[in-house]
Amino acid sequence: MDGALTIEVGAGPIVLLGERAAWLPEHRLLLVADAHLGKAQAFRRLGVPVPAGTTAENLRRLGDLIARMQPGEVVFLGDLLHAREGRSPATMAAIGRWRQAHAGVPMRLVRGNHDSRAGDPPGDWDFAVVDEPWRVGGWALCHHPQFLPGAYVLAGHEHPCVVLGSGVGRLRLPCFHLRCDAGLLPAFGEFTGGHAIRRRPGDRVVAIVDGVPRLLPG
Known about the structure:
Blueprint: E1 4-9, E2 12-17, E3 21-24, E4 29-32, H1 39-45, H2 54-69, E5 73-76, H3 89-101, E6 107-110, H4 113-118, E7 127-130, E8 134-136, E9 139-141, E10 152-155, E11 160-164, E12 171-178, E13 182-184, E14 195-196, E15 204-209, E16 212-215
Parallel strand pairs: 4-5, 5-6, 6-7, 9-10, 10-13, 11-14
Antiparallel strand pairs: 1-2, 2-3, 3-4, 8-9, 11-12, 12-13, 12-15, 15-16
Helix pairs in contact: 2-3
């Protein structure tokens, strides 16, 4: 599969996608963390001048992923919406139209910290909404990284990135951070920022380089 890298972890194989999402092939689940839809709108309503169009771009990318992967379900690992201030009529209508265009695809939200403030998706978006952890086989799908006995946790929340090089050649790249008992997904949203990871012995780090997942040397 182009633009993808399969990694074996404790619960089985996980396919890391260059679009900053993940695929669980045994369950046909497409996993997306930290979309933060409406974030730019929320900032503009607070008087912060930020670019427009990020929600539309996020929805386009996600639509392309759905067409490519044909998932049995899309699972958002928290922070689907950024804030109540981002729930403008135009933003909510655009997301609603997008959801209607993918009405045949089940979608689920595992609530994150921003969801508690932004509120659950409207009923007509037809989302299943659950609290963490949501267990599927040997996986525990969460928003917050945590240890859960007997499961491999997949989570978001931290917007992981890796810093490579120094000085003028220094790069900050979104990454997947796979620990022995949990894996962190990069933020899917375009306007989210990133937090540099702290790598421990045995961790695997997969950076997204020009839309391609690359396993970094140990």
